[in-house]
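Supplementary Methods S3. Input chains for the assembly prediction are listed below.
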Amino acid sequence: MPETAALVERLRAGDARALARAITLVENDAGAGEGAAALLTACFPYAGRGLRVGITGAPGAGKSTLVDRLAGRWRAEGRTVGVIAVDPSSPFTGGALLGDRIRFQDRQGDAGFYARSMATRGSLGGLAQATADVALLIEASGKDALLIETVGVGQDEVEIARLADITLVVLAPGMGDDVQSLKAGVMEIADIYVVNKADREGADRVEREIRAMQSLAQTHSEWTPPVVRTVGTTGEGVDRLAEAIAKMQAWLGQENRLAKRRARHWERRLDAMLRTELMRRARRHGVAEDELARHAARIAAGEEDPWSVARELAGRIVED
Amino acid sequence: MPETAALVERLRAGDARALARAITLVENDAGAGEGAAALLTACFPYAGRGLRVGITGAPGAGKSTLVDRLAGRWRAEGRTVGVIAVDPSSPFTGGALLGDRIRFQDRQGDAGFYARSMATRGSLGGLAQATADVALLIEASGKDALLIETVGVGQDEVEIARLADITLVVLAPGMGDDVQSLKAGVMEIADIYVVNKADREGADRVEREIRAMQSLAQTHSEWTPPVVRTVGTTGEGVDRLAEAIAKMQAWLGQENRLAKRRARHWERRLDAMLRTELMRRARRHGVAEDELARHAARIAAGEEDPWSVARELAGRIVED
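Predicted structure tokens for the full assembly:
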């Protein structure tokens, strides 16, 4: 595939348009097509060298501002930076891409910076896989750090957290029930807590609640997530946040911790990829495109049960 | 399996303890075990007769109060009601079950009512499947209506929305960015919008924003989601909400719409079930339990790429 090789070469040389083309190619066939698989396989050896930082938290906590601040700081230090914003906005208006352009306007023309938004649409398990693919391509283009921003606490976020080496959970005072419901779900994935908008009333309370939750949870890790206060709009505390990230990066560098963490994450992703590969082969060997739809109609009418159908279809390609 | 048959019989007779036992059984082996599959298959013919209503929206919008109000109203009309609250709280303290007990205290001893919380934990695609299984069991126990409450706008919610015949999206004034980011992601699944806490300032603005989004979106459906204002704490507007649900139920009853909608939902669920079944067989025929972990470590070290591994493992049970 000489085309793939040429694209990978340009991408690795830092050509932003080649990167954008590669991402579009992979997004369009969701990693399943031959072209996308070849491209990802070719880029794989050049990925995984940078640091991947996930940023999650409820809408309104100020994640985007913090991402911009961290990116700016790292760029000023000479590190190249990629950003993926997993953005639930605007499936109808195409606002995600528009948002990119507005949001990162001041970095236009900065060859050491690349940002991409992804909308939360797509098929089963699709968003986490698509984000993983895009992360790989951005890393292969030679970025030293990759920031992956997500909203919320759903299954998606937990899976996207598996792409990150370090996950920041951003909270803010004055968000009422949000903080309450966010906290527990994300405690499993939080490496560093950020109390943003720390100049507002209630920052103490948010920090106290985090500490209280921590004392209740029996975490098995030797790493106790620190709580860092920031004011994204002024940049206050971003130095401390960058230090906390550097400290955790150093910790991960010891005793093979980063490799173990990435291996754990890969195990889950490999499981999903194997399911997708099996399904692809099932479709090729006897499960026709429209067959699921036909069975689905019969299941909805109560004429068949879904377990028997799943067994029958699977049985065509592999015995029980 | 005489045990399964006995359990199904007790469950169908409305025995709440049999239902609870069945749910525990299914949750514990996540629908994958022989016992769980037999139980679900046995219950399947008795499910799907009631109406399934999904309720989603950001934390703090007042979903729980509305669910309680609707449940109370329907119980007063003599309809039996089930509730599933998919609850992101408390992976550490087991608070979900405790929450049930506190929240539905006044319905204790009401044989026509059953509520269950589910925590947002579990494996890949696990929560949507687990919720589907629990919904089936509660329906098979003879409930006329099932309310499924979820938080947020992630992939989970979209998949759980596929369990519902009618999906309510609950918004509230004064939630700042939440409304903004919630709106777009849920427009695809919303059948009825609820502006709760409508006695607060800003309810007009929330309704205006919904209408503005609707006018932008090119929906292909003949159903235009109405906007209903409620005050969950006082019960104001719950009558109108129940009417809106009844109206949509009547609409779904025409031109085979409900059957078509359920068939569309089943198609997606069948896809997931087939993947799980293929994976189960792969594990039985040559993909050893620890093999994914060993490959994952090599992938994390850059010694193998995941696509080749997925192809190799899949190739053991079915050719390409």
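Residues 170 and 194 of chain B are 5 Å apart (CA to CA). Residues 89-98 of chain B have pLDDT under 50 and may be disordered.
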